[in-house]
């Protein structure tokens, strides 16, 4: 039979281990840029930009350093559209997409999301570009 002192010491050790486990988890850093609780990104893709070149718009974003396979979905809305619609996807390490065959003088708005498995991030910030004559 175990003495009361041994049982008490065992409980104290278990209590301290549980306390250490829970306290270390509660102070966890949110370094993953796609984590909705990341205080900097709030889970949204970053660095999205749109540049018009003649009748096209090149949408680019900050490269993602993810170990899981992922795709980036690109959404577009023109002044004539009621809402955004998905116009394409790119895989993995690619960090740009060119939207072609657009009208001169028409403004286009874009945002992206990142898909990892069945998870899709919140939309990025919206960027806009207006195709037109390109001067170099």
What report would you give on this structure?
This protein is of the alpha+beta class and 136 residues long. Helices cover 17% and strands 32% of the residues. It contains one helix and eight strands, in the order αββββββββ. The strands form two sheets. Strands 3, 4, 6, 7 and 8 form a five-stranded antiparallel beta sheet that branches. Strand 6 (108-116) and strand 7 (119-120) form a beta hairpin. It is rod-shaped, with a radius of gyration of 24 Å. The N and C termini lie far apart (89 Å). The model has no long low-confidence stretch (mean pLDDT 82).
In terms of topology, how is this protein built?
Blueprint: H1 4-26, E1 49-53, E2 56-60, E3 71-78, E4 85-91, E5 96-99, E6 108-116, E7 119-120, E8 127-129
Antiparallel strand pairs: 1-2, 2-5, 3-4, 3-6, 6-7, 6-8
Query: Based on DSSP secondary structure assignment, what is the total number of beta strands?
Result: 8
Shape: rod-shaped
**SS class:** alpha+beta
Cα-based radius of gyration, to the nearest Å: 24 Å
The separation of the N and C termini measures 89 Å
Number of helices: 1
Provide the low-confidence segments as ranges: none
Give the averaged pLDDT, no decimals: 82
Q: Report the sheet with the most strands, covering strand number, pairing sense and barrel closure.
A: 5 strands, antiparallel
The portion of residues forming beta strands comes to 25-35%
- Binned, the helix content reads 10-25%
Order of helices and strands: HEEEEEEEE
């Amino acid at each position: 039979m175990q003495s009361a002192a041994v049982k008490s010491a065992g409980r104290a050790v278990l209590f301290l281990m549980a306390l250490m486990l829970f306290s270390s988890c509660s102070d966890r850093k949110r370094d993953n840029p796609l984590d909705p609780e990341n205080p900097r990104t709030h889970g949204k893709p970053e660095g999205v930009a749109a540049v018009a070149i003649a009748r096209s718009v090149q949408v680019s974003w900050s490269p993602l350093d993810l170990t899981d396979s992922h795709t980036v979905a690109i959404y577009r809305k023109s002044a004539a559209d009621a809402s955004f619609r998905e116009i394409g996807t790119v895989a993995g390490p690619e960090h740009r997409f060119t939207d072609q065959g657009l009208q001169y003088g028409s403004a286009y708005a874009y945002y992206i999301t990142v898909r990892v498995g069945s998870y899709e991030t919140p939309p990025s910030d919206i960027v806009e570009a207006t195709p037109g004559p390109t001067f170099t």
